Amino acid sequence: MRGWIIYKDSATLLKPETYEIKRLLQVAQEENIDLQVYSPDQFDLLVSREDDQSVLIDGEPVSLPDFVLPRMGAGTTYFALAIIRHLERLGVHCFNSSEAIETVKDKLFAQQILAQQNLPTPKTMLVKFPVNIDLVEKQIGFPVVVKTLSGSQGSGVFLSKSRSEFDDLMQLIEATSPKANIILQKFIKSSHGRDLRVLTIGGRVVACMERNSGGANFKANVSAGAKGLSHPITPEIEWLATQTANILNLDMAGIDLLFDEEHFKICEANSSPGFEGLEAAVDVDVAREILHFIRIRLGIFDKKKPVVVEAKKSAAKSQPAATSA
């Protein structure tokens, strides 16, 4: 089985995903999977009838892989998305798809889809300048969470604790970047400094971790210094995470849930979740789970490896036949 990882460090990342890439490459080698890492900058695309020659890497035509793992998430540029779309149309399986990546990259659009399906999400509002602060106070209230439309690892997320603080921030944004796309979300007090990261692969929950900043920061991202602890997977958590991943068509996803008293609200979904903190907190080999899922989805198995089922049958044949009483 042959695969590509498409990855490039993004300015939006607080911490590069070097750990995740190394783990995937390590497990791929152990699983006899030919896995290569390429940056979008290495690609050139030719739109023509000669599809088998339409993808070039470093200026040379290449044979296509069985699958692609885009690992850029919210940092996926138009060019990178065009590469994924092109590969999909040539029959290459991409995990996740270009459509799913583009959907969750837009946090407002993802919230609109989830709300349409009657899933619990924080009340969200799109900012337009000049900002009507009275309307914001009436509909959302203060404190209020301010987010850029696209971002990951907690970057581009702020908490305005008061009306005056929010007014100052909006004036700054309007003065420096009047075309910026900003959304506002209702602050969930019971989730201050903590949330859940739920990892789903192939429509099932693989792991669940509570992220906790200890109150030092209202954000709970491990990449920003929060601690990760294993958290039990309750039926509610499992249902919310799997429903979110399914509705957003995500083969693999990091679903962030906010504590809402005794229940949860869906904060956002990530199409390329980091898993360094998750593997440290939970006894799950995430990289192996990802590659096993892809192997099963594609139906490509290593014939050189012994099949467990056959081994069990052989062992059963070697047992003496049971005699009737």
TrEMBL record:
The keyword Magnesium applies. Residues 111-295 form the ATP-grasp domain. GO terms for biological process: translation. SUPFAM superfamilies: Glutathione synthetase ATP-binding domain-like (SSF56059). Keywords: ATP-binding, Ligase, Magnesium, Manganese, Metal-binding, Nucleotide-binding, Protein biosynthesis. PROSITE patterns: ATP_GRASP (PS50975). It comes from the Bacteria. Its cofactor is Mg(2+); Mn(2+). One of its GO terms (molecular function) is metal ion binding. GO terms for cellular component: cytoplasm. PANTHER family: COENZYME GAMMA-F420-2:ALPHA-L-GLUTAMATE LIGASE (PTHR21621:SF2), RIBOSOMAL PROTEIN S6 MODIFICATION PROTEIN (PTHR21621). This is Alpha-L-glutamate ligase. It comes from Pseudoalteromonas rubra. The lineage of its organism: Bacteria, Pseudomonadati, Pseudomonadota, Gammaproteobacteria, Alteromonadales.
